[in-house]
Amino acid sequence: MEILTLNIKGMTCGGCVKSVTTVLQQLPGVTGVDVSLEQNNAAIKYDPSKVQPAQFKAAIEDAGFDVI
Ligand SMILES: [Cu+2]
C-alpha cells in the first residue's frame, strides 16, 4: 500500500468533503481516504497495482473540484 496526499481546491463544507471522499472510495484499489477541509487535502491509501494517481485527479475533478 502507498499513501498519496493531494491538495484540493474548492471544498467549502462537510458536503464537499463527503463528495470527494465518496468518489475516491469508489475507485478500485483504494483502501483508505482521509479528506481534510481545514487543510484542503486528501490522503489516499491505495494499491499501486490496481489504481494510478491520475485516476484520483480525474475523479476529484469530475466531482467538481480542482487538484492543485
Ligand atoms: Cu460543500
Describe the structure.
A hairpin with a 4-residue loop joins strand 2 and strand 3 (41-46). A 4-stranded antiparallel sheet has the order 2-3-1-4. It has 68 residues and is α+β, with helices and mostly antiparallel strands. The chain has a single domain (2-67), classed as Alpha-Beta Plaits (2-Layer Sandwich), CATH 3.30.70.100. The model has no long low-confidence stretch (mean pLDDT 98). The chain has helices spanning 14-25, 53-62, and strands spanning 2-9, 30-36, 41-46, 66-67. The chain is globular. The chain is built from 2 helices and 4 strands; from the N terminus they run βαββαβ. Copper (II) ion is lined by residues 12-13, 15-16.
* Number of domains as seen in the coordinates: 1
| Beta-strand content | 25-35%
Q: Order of strands side by side in the largest beta sheet? A: 2-3-1-4
Helix content: 25-40%
The global form is: globular
Q: Mean of residue pLDDT?
A: 98
Biggest sheet descriptor:
4 strands, antiparallel
Order of helices and strands: EHEEHE
Radius of gyration, Cα only, in angstroms? 11 Å
Multimerization state: single chain
